Structures are given as structure tokens and as C-alpha cells.
Amino acid sequence: MLTTEMVQRIRTLLDGGRMSQRGIARALRVSRGTVGAIALGRRHDPAARRDGQHPGLVSPAGPAERCPGCGGMVQMPCLACRLRALRRKR
Known about the structure:
about 90 residues, mainly alpha, 2 domains, two-stranded antiparallel ribbon
């Protein structure tokens, strides 16, 4: 799992423009896909995700129960239904 410091370091190297994404991946021993996702803004700060600060993310809580939307046994709110709703809005 990437740390917040690692994500920041990758962003710094990308902003510097001196190294290719492949070079950054080799130097930091992460995949090229990870570096590419950070470069495109598809990979967010892991600390924000853990702290619940990630936009559109609601942390599940409580015991597992049957979701009225999809019928799965999940901790509410059902993240699968939430993602489907967000995709429909796009």
C-alpha cells in the first residue's frame, strides 16, 4: 500500500518534469500504472481515503444487513449502490 509520503514524492517528481513515469516507477519501486494513475489524478491520497475525506465516500458502519437496493448483505450504506448512483449521475 502506498503511503501519503510516497504519493507526494511521486507528484513532486512528476511536477519536476525531469524523469519519465517509467523512471519514477523504477526509482521508487512502484508500478508504472500507479505512477500513471497519480499523474492523471485517478489515484487519491490514501490518508484522505482512510479519514473519510475522500469526496463521495461514506464509511460503512454497523452490523451487516440486507441492502434494499441490491439485496446484498452489507454494512450500510451500501457502497456498491452508492457507486452505481454516482455513475448514473455522470
